[in-house]
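Supplementary Text 2. Reproducibility record for the structural model of the 299-residue chain.

All settings were left at their defaults, and a single model was retained for analysis rather than an ensemble. We include the record here because the model underlies the residue-level annotations in Supplementary Table 4.
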Amino acid sequence: MLQAFDERNRDLIVSVGGRLTHRDEAAVSPFDSAVQGGDAVWEGLRLYRGRIFRLDEHLARLRRSARALAFEAVPPNEEIIAEIRRTLAANQMHDNVHIRLTLSRGVKITSGMDPRLNQSGPTLIVLPEHKPPVYDQEGITLVTSSVRRAPPDSLDPKIHHNNLLTSILAKIEANIAGADDAVMLDHRGFVAETNATNLFLVTGGRLGTPSAAACPEGITRQAVLDLAAASGIGCTVGDFSLAQLHTADELFVTGTMGGIVPVLALDGRTIGAGAPGGVTRRLAGLFAELTASAGTEII
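Retained model, structure tokens:
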């Protein structure tokens, strides 16, 4: 899976620190914390017909992450939403848009990792793109990466931070193997997530998903858990081994970039019948109905 350039994005207007500029002219200071040490938090938002799905939940996670990293200041939600609106309006965007929202600790007075060098407040970056779901909705293939997710006492996954190097290393392994993405294990050897999405399995009609001990608590993941509970689909949140994924009746991944996407094969093993399963199709349909009717009006 390789995302293609969308010609509609050639003349994007982006917001960096409150300044709207053409994508080719946008500038982040070399003294910004995002550049100096990946010292930033981020959210991926999706715009459906003028509404952003679960915007409040995304902004709450952004704020929690920034507080956990001891950011001195975080813009109020109203200010962030206003900047999102302004950027979308500048691009005349209304639907099928992915928004990368980044908040760094800000610009330092001199190079260094000490947060006390950040004395001018955070930098907010709003990057919207015309971007349909990036995965093949008919299904993807996965391999297991040798790269492990960090334990919570090393880098807590509840901090939605910009340090994505382990994910990038896992994605490199998937690329080399000819797979779409890579499954990542935690430090104990249990399944955590993929390099980019949360994972669900279906066995005997019952849903399961790894705990968030070593992976972010995905917003789409929670939406699926809510839909399953409302539809009477039982679900276990806990520890799952690779063998349980290899022998599952169905597998699917969830995330803002792709929604709900079936997994057809993992590590060369066909999952179920090698086609989207009934539970996956049902939840994908319910999720499509939800995103078509819910969300914060932004346009």
